[in-house]
Amino acid sequence: xxxxxxxxxxxxxxxxxxxxxxxxxxxxxxxxxxxxxxxxxxxxxxxxxxxxxxxxxxxxxxxxxxxxxxxxxxxxxxxxxxxxxxxxxxxxxxxxxxxxxxxxxxxxxxxxxxxxxxxxxxxxxxxxxxxxxxxxxxxxxxxxxxxxxxxxxxxxxxxxxxxxxxxxxxxxxxxxxxxxxxxxxxxxxxxxxxxxxxxxxxxxxxxxxxxxxxxxxxxxxxxxxxxxxxxxxxxxxxxxxxxxxxxxxxxxxxxxxxxxxxxxxxxxxxxxxxxxxxxxxxxxxxxxxxxxxxxxxxxxxxxxxxxxxxxxxxxxxxxxxxxxxxxxxxxxxxxxxxxxxxxxxxxxxxxxxxxxxxxxxxxxxxxxxxxxxxxxxxxxxxxxxxxxxxxxxxxxxxxxxxxxxxxxxxxxxxxxxxxxxxxxxxxxxxxxxxxxxxxxxxxxxxxxxxxxxxxxxxxxxxxxxxxxxxxxxxxxxxxxxxxxxxxxxxxxxxxxxxxxx
Amino acid sequence: xxxxxxxxxxxxxxxxxxxxxxxxxxxxxxxxxxxxxxxxxxxxxxxxxxxxxxxxxxxxxxxxxxxxxxxxxxxxxxxxxxxxxxxxxxxxxxxxxxxxxxxxxxxxxxxxxxxxxxxxxxxxxx
Lengths: 501, 126
Prior knowledge:
heterodimer; A: about 500 residues; alpha+beta; six-stranded mixed sheet; B: about 130 residues; four-stranded antiparallel sheet; two-stranded antiparallel sheet; 3 helices; about 30% strand
């Protein structure tokens, strides 16, 4: 069969004759009539996703006030935008937090408010120049008042992503949502078989210039996204875990508030749920076959997000069919799953795009250039980094058989705030000066009752930042340093504070 | 009937639940409870012929009685059905056949696990 061209497909779209199916519908359709017939009949397959996409934001141009100002700092509803551009241009990123509301409101929420027609407060500061004498501005503005508001997202629509879990005995709060202790749940992103880049795994039809539906408006792929990675492990053509990404842009003024949403991931930060629909033209058998993937064919790794390291370990591989079933097995137990992207909304987006194409309201625009192959490189830190081992101090120790009085004597004699309690097998507990104060108040006299038994620890190789984060998180002032199950020292928050000064 | 009993400080140490069981022959299934020296909150499923009398009596002791459905509010119009809450909620939140999140307030035990998980803050507990 002669391959179809995009022009032929567009002609049929204009006439209202195009056959369009969503990436969900195409699977059953081909099952029924076979690939050969379907290639001839189907013109376009629509895909969709609606997920939290942190690498998103808008370029804004506010216009000139009288007298004019060269804005050196700008806030919208107290969320700062980047102004290292010309006088009244700014870029507002979705993860920027409000200066008064913190995690509850950020750049993503400002964008949602603007698109919903709400006024936001523009505040700007400047140093003043001969040509731009004004130093301050504060005024309500709406999307209508702004000259250009162009959504420009450096990285959207991840082709596959990790699933997340937590092996520790404490709940953690991450960009993958709330992760319960002891593999208590698994969260995952992407809409699987409906997801745009999983339906064109080798970017045959998606490239620079491809027209897409971005938050309900016409948008374009303008480049491969940041962290675009084509050198990944695959199952057939389908990457296992994070791979390709898209850089996209579109006019915020044309967007539909239904398809973008400011969001907060608890104790992580703010972001924006972005709705993207990508049409896949069925040019030949290969492009059709690419859209036939099902959730069973797509695999990813369940990664342990409790390890605060770049190379978090994978617990197991899993398919999207298993993730979608609501439970996956880890360590012989069923962990409930949470998708983080909305399949319900993604289906609406794919359906909307299908309707627009069927009605002749959305013509396809193919790529003018392919997406570059690339590898996602880690950041090498070229200076030697300080580790816990470099900063740790000698630690005051007593045996588990000691009296509370011995501990108090040691604290005073050594002029320290922490004494660790050990036995022949290693660490058993820790007592701080605060514990002693509390014990005095509560009338406790036995070491066993006073010491903290569940001790948060570190190791000589651990990064100082990771150790500092532990102290901050658990609101403690020192961590015993453990090497081969023996206590070899202690690192305290005051030592870290001293070094950071 | 799913109810929330809020025990103020003054009555937190009184055996009020035992009293209503003995006096009114009601069955009290405690679904969740949090009691400390300043206040107590019990989420219960209560049944029996004399439930109304039991509730009346509870109120005279100072316990605030309220149906669960009056304590939790789910904004279905705002919900984007992402499902971040699903793996944390014991019973009440679920996907329907179209992958839209539904909330059954009768099954909620006010554990509040969903509150932190929801990126859009569509669930509120009073």
